[in-house]
Design a protein that fits this description.
The chain has about 300 residues and is an alpha/beta fold. Helices cover about 55% and strands about 10% of the residues. Helix 4 (about 70-95) runs antiparallel to helix 5, helix 6 (about 115-135) runs antiparallel to helix 7 and helix 9 (about 210-220) packs parallel to helix 10 (about 235-245).
Amino acid sequence: MQEQLTTRQIAMALQVSESSVKRWCDRGVIPTVRTVGGHRRIPLAGFMQFLEQTNQQVVVPLETRSEVDSEASQENSIESLAETQKKFIAALAKGDEETCRSTLIRSFAQHNSIARLADDVIAPALHRLGEEWQCGELEVYQERRGCGICSHILHELKRILPAPPENAPLAIGATPEGDQYTLPSQLIETLMQQLGWQPMNLGCNVPLTSIAAAAQAHRPRLLWLSISHIVDEEKFVSEYSNFYASLPPQLSVVLGGRALTDRLRPRLRYTGFCDNMQQLASFATALNVRRHSLQSSTN
């Protein structure tokens, strides 16, 4: 069953009156269902559709169901996660975008965490699809289609995240030249927005010299590089060394990606390395807290 929202939750997220939300529901502007008792309930997918069609902006984080904390509930949550992964993988392989959408929306509604959605559902599914493609069990188009479906849904999920505040720190990132994978940086972009940063995703296959130019022009607080594929390792190490030396001072550089092997990582300079999105979320949150502390101490 898809997560359903109350008119109060939506009013809080949009910072409007609950009576306004009820009027939108009754006029059909927001897709609405009624409970047996006659109360209005809005499917999360319907709320996302409303945001897309009206250009309304979420002002404060959307309240969703509270996380489970009892031992029994945690066991059920683990079982549910396994079922979610299985269902999502099957839907991706079939190209069933609607099932993929409802599965991701339900998972996001449960935990309200882009990092957990990425680590627990999206990454395992894409890894499985990649393995099946390499083994000849899936066609290339099925793997590429799966990435496209995830990209579409992430774009929709961004609509229900609050826009960053005006004074939000800037984070920019990309995948370097030769790396055509777009989804990791899109996931990071969405995650950083949820964490209260202003993300600037430069895209994939971007020369390191151009990424450095962007860092010099915009002076971000954090720069991420997602590195899933390296064409020439020696060339990359040499170019990366020049790239790192050209960056502005006080810039935190975060690396991640399966191409950064244990053998390669010691040859690179960086502030932090993250194996998954939850580690990145912890790093970015700590960096933001430190920034606020330094600002407070100077005032």
